DNA sequence: TATGAATGAGCGTTCATTCAT
DNA sequence: AATGAATGAACGCTCATTCAT
C-alpha cells in the first residue's frame, strides 16, 4: 500500500478514536509510521486529509444502496430493505464521531458545501436512493399509491441515524444481534 | 441579568455559530461583554461552560413532551404528536452544531457520560417520553396492540433528528412552513 | 487576635507548605478565613505580607542568642552553645522553604536589601551574635587567643544551616533526638 | 553547539539571574535566540529544563571531590582540602539562586525526590565525599581516632554553604581573595 | 520523496490587584 | 473595615505548517 493510503487509513482510525478536534498531525503521522512532513507531500493540509477520510465513509451503505435499485419487484420489499437498514445502522454507528465532526468547524463546512453539492455527495443521498427504490415499487403496484416514498425513507434511515447517535453518545457497544433487532422493529413498524 | 447568564447566553450563541472546537474563551468573553478572567469567576473552565449550555438545549422539546403525557385519550393521536414533532425538529435544528460537538472531544464525553446517566439526561429521553405517551394510548385502545410504541417514537424523532442534521449540513434555512410540511409528511406516513 | 495577625499566621503556614511561588492570595485569604480584599486592608500587597512573615522567622534562635550574651564566663562554653545550636537547627529547618524563597524573586530581594541592611536584619546576624559571645569568652581567657571567634560561629551555624537545607531537600522528618545528636556532633568536634 | 545546549545555557543564565519563579519560557527562548515552541522540541516542559540545568550545577565541586579521593596520605590534609573548599564556596555561590529555587515549588521537589535518590544525586553527596576522604586519612593515622570525619565535613561545607547564601542574600560580590580568605579561616580553625 | 527541527500565532487558564457596595 | 466580582496582563504550552537537508 502506498503512503497516501497508509496516511488516510491512519487518519481515519485516529479521527474516529479522538474526534477531529483532538486529532493532531503528529498523531496521524505516528499512526501512519511516517513523519509529519510526509503528510504534506500527499495532502494539502490537515483539512484535506479530513475531507479525504470523510468521503470514504458510508461506503458499505452506498454499495448496498446501489444493489437495492435492481431489486424492485423481486422478493418482498421488507426483505429488500433489510440489508440496507443494517448497512445504514452499521455505517452510521461506525462513522458518527467523524460525521459529527463536520459541525465542529462550521467554516470548513461552509468552504466545502458547494463542492459537496457539485459532486452530489452528502448524507441525504442515502435517503434519496431508498426513496427512489420505493418509488419504483410503488409504480410496480407493490406499495399503495397514497404512501410517500421519501417519507418512508426518511423515517427508516432517520431512526437508524438517531439510534447510531444515541448509542455512541451513551457509549454502548451494540452486538450484531441487538442491531438486527433494532432494524427489525423499524421495518416491522413501517411494513406491518 | 447577572453576568453568569450573560456568559451562558453569549457562549450558546458563539458555540452554535462556531462549534465547540472553534469557540475560544476570548470570543465568549467578547460576546458577553466581559473579560476572559470573569469567565472563571462563574465557571470552572471552558468545558464547564459548554456543559452548562448543552444542558439548556432541547428545552422547548422537553416542555412539550411534559404536556404530551396528559393528552393521552384526548383529541387524535396525530394531533397530539404534532406540536411535539414540530418542537423536536425545531430544537434539533437549532442545537445540531452544539449537540454534535459532543463528539468532537470524545474524552470529554467519556468524562461526563456517568454524570449524564445519573441525572437521566441525554437525547434518548425524548424518545422514551413519546413512547410512554403512545403506550398509554395503546392501553386506552387507540393504537393497535401489535404496534410497538418505542419503534414509532424512534421513527418519528429519528426522522426529525436526521432531517435537522441534513438541513444543517447543507446550510439550508428552512421556513416554518417547510418544517411543518416535513412534520406532516412523517406523521401522515406513520398515522395514515 | 486581630485580622492582621490572623492573616500573617495564615500566610506563614501557606508559605511554608507551598513555597512563595505557589502561595496565592486566594489561598492565604482562605486560610485566614477572610476575603482576598481584606488582605489589602492590612498589607500593601502580597510582597508586603511575605516580608512581614519573613521578619518573624528565626525568632526562637534570636531569643536564644540574646540570652547567650549574658552567659559569657558561666558554665562551660559548649554547654552555653548547646541551646543556641539546637535553636538554630530547629529554626533553620522550619523556615528553610520560606528563607530560600527570597531567591525565587531576586528583584524583590534587590528592592529590600537596603531596608534589611538599615534595620540590621538578615541571617548573618546570628553568626555575629555567636561570634560576639565567643569573643567575650576569649577575652575572659576561656578560649585560646589564636582561635577566630567568627570562624567558629560560621562553622557551627553553617553546618546547622546546610543540614537543615539537606533534610528539607530530602524530605526527611528528623526527630528531636536526631537533631540533638547532630548538634552534639558539631559541638564535640569544635570543642573537643 | 546544538540548540538543546544553547537552550540549556540560556536557561541557566536566566534562572540564575531571575530565579525559577520569574524565569519565563519567553525569556529563555529570547536568551537562546529561538522561538518558544523550539523549547518543547528539546524539553518536555519548563520543569524539565529546570531539572536539566539543576543537574549541571556543582560540577566544579564534584570534579574536585573525585580527585580528592586519591590524595589520602599525600601532602597535608589541610592542603588537600583547600581546593575542595574553594570549589565548594565558588559553586555554592554561583548556584545558590538555582539551588534555592527547588524550595519555591515544593510539589516539584516532591515529584523528583525519588528520582534524585535513585540517581544518588543531591547536595549531601559532597559532604559524604569529604567525609570518605577524611576517613581514609584517619585510617592512615593522620587524623586522631576520636575525630568524626562526617562532622568535620559537615562543618567545613556547611560554613561554605551558609556563607554563599549570606553573600548572595546581601548582594555582595566577593573577590577571589576574599573567598580564599574565608576558606583559609575555616580550614585553619578546623585544622589548627 | 521523506524528513523533523523550527516556527509563531493562538490557546485556556491563573492571579495579584482594584473598587463599588 | 470587609467584601468578592471584575479585571487584564502574563503565563506555559500546543500544533499545523514550512523548509533546508
UniProtKB/TrEMBL annotation, chains A, B, C, D:
<keyword id="KW-0238">DNA-binding</keyword>
<dbReference type="InterPro" id="IPR050109">
    <property type="entry name" value="HTH-type_TetR-like_transc_reg"/>
</dbReference>
<protein>
    <submittedName>
        <fullName>TetR/AcrR family transcriptional regulator</fullName>
    </submittedName>
</protein>
<keyword id="KW-0804">Transcription</keyword>
<dbReference type="InterPro" id="IPR001647">
    <property type="entry name" value="HTH_TetR"/>
</dbReference>
<feature type="DNA-binding region" description="H-T-H motif">
    <location>
        <begin position="24"/>
        <end position="43"/>
    </location>
</feature>
<dbReference type="Pfam" id="PF00440">
    <property type="entry name" value="TetR_N"/>
</dbReference>
<feature type="domain" description="HTH tetR-type">
    <location>
        <begin position="1"/>
        <end position="61"/>
    </location>
</feature>
<keyword id="KW-0805">Transcription regulation</keyword>
<dbReference type="InterPro" id="IPR009057">
    <property type="entry name" value="Homeodomain-like_sf"/>
</dbReference>
Amino acid at each position: 500500500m502506498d503512503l497516501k493510503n497508509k496516511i488516510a487509513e491512519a487518519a481515519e482510525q485516529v479521527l474516529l478514536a479522538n474526534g477531529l478536534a483532538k486529532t493532531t498531525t503528529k498523531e496521524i503521522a505516528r499512526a501512519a509510521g511516517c513523519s509529519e512532513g510526509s503528510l504534506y507531500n500527499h495532502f494539502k493540509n490537515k483539512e484535506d486529509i479530513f475531507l479525504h477520510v470523510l468521503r470514504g465513509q458510508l461506503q458499505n451503505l452506498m454499495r448496498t444502496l446501489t444493489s437495492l435499485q435492481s431489486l424492485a419487484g423481486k422478493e418482498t420489499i421488507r426483505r429488500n430493505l433489510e440489508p440496507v437498514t443494517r448497512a445504514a445502522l452499521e455505517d452510521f454507528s461506525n462513522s458518527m464521531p467523524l460525521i459529527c465532526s463536520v459541525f465542529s468547524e462550521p467554516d470548513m463546512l461552509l468552504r466545502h458545501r458547494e463542492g459537496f453539492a457539485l459532486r452530489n455527495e452528502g448524507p441525504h443521498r442515502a435517503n434519496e436512493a431508498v426513496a427512489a427504490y420505493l418509488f419504483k415499487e410503488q409504480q410496480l403496484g407493490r406499495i399503495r399509491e397514497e404512501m410517500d416514498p421519501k417519507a418512508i425513507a426518511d423515517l427508516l434511515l432517520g431512526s437508524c441515524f438517531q439510534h447510531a447517535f444515541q448509542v455512541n453518545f451513551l457509549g454502548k457497544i451494540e452486538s450484531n444481534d441487538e442491531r438486527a433487532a433494532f432494524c427489525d422493529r423499524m421495518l416491522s413498524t413501517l411494513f406491518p
